[in-house]
Amino acid sequence: MRARTWTRQTVVLAAVATLGAGLLAGCADDGKDEENSSSGGGGGKTTISVGLFGTMGFKEAGLYDEYEKLNPKIKIEQNVVERNENYYPALLNHLTTNSGLLDVQAVEVANIAEVTATQADKLEDMSKAPGVDKSKWLPWKWQQATTKDGKTIGLGTDVGPMAICYRTDLFKQAGLPTDPSEVGKLWAGDWAKLVDVGERYKSKAPKGTFFMDSPGGLINAILSSEKEKFYDSSGEVIYKTNPAVQAAFNLTAEAAEKGLVQSQTQFQPSWNSTIANNKFAAIACPPWMLGTIKGNAKPEAAGKWAVAVAPKGGNWGGTFLTVPKSGKNVKEAQKFVTWLTAPEQQAKLFKVQASFPSAPSAYTMPEVTDATNEMTGDQKIGPIFAEAAKAAPVQVIGPKDQIIMQGLSDNGVILVTKGKSAKDAWESAIKTIDNKLDQ
Which residue segments constitute the domains of the chain, with CATH numbers given? Predict the structure, then answer.
């Protein structure tokens, strides 16, 4: 859910102004949060205020209750803004002014580069917090929130290791194998092989279905496995000259030209309905995507999906928890974030929320190794995502990755499904992106 944010960027000054006070007061996820909104707590307790976006699952997994039992003098107050494109502009505004910040603030991976590069002085160095050991995190995850001078401004919660989810019934009808290990072999090592499988699917496809859900999902998956995509290690924008980006765009355009992907933009109502109506057979699939599928599928779809290894290791999504220096309870917030992001808690979160751990030691815990999902039946999906997480590259993340990805998708490859040439679609994308980067 949290990784939806690159699909739509509605960052406007009005939103910042409107949400400025809202970030401090929060948008409580239920009435209970609103009952305990004072920063000082009640009954002599210290209230740690936590600013989040979307459904991150800490509360649903019982982690707040567990921490409060371990620490009777602590009360956790969760404040939630539903969408990151509303949450982040307000957060950035508060960081810039260094005011109105909560004790803990979540930052989505699409925004971590900008926060790390421009706001590190407002945030605690969590690498120096008691009990924090960087070796507990995936190296590339730790690096994403670390400044050039070695300050780590956030601890990673989840990651989005890339896999391919597919409908076993549709694959069977199209004459393709259905066993996950055999399916993975079809496209092992090369995204172009995935497109080749799409052509095989199309030749015998059940009427009215496409191979994949969207051009945006495909290009994003391909680029997730590249070390450099939109920025180089020096911070220069390179998306127009990077051969990997051009290759990903061309391969996705080819799939669009051949009718292998739907003419849909992900996470829009019309796209949601194609899940419910079984209109596509495969989708680029980090763990959280299974929750999206479940939320939109009809009950009879349960157990008809499976998870296969992606052509190459990649990552899509993930979040960090930061502790602002101006928070009311900095030391207690650091202790809480350290506990909340420990491998044991990350494993518990995956079991409930399908948020995959960024701590490798969690991958051998039963909550991960034995994990199944309602949509994928009795298949143990944890090991597949664990291998994908370990195979993901240390990727250069830029401050405007979200804008560039949206332009390549929503103003680029999708146009090929509507009749434009790949060349014209590329020119449309770069025009849109460059206009936004200049703003």
Answer: 2-160+317-376 (3.40.190.10), 161-316+383-437 (3.40.190.10)
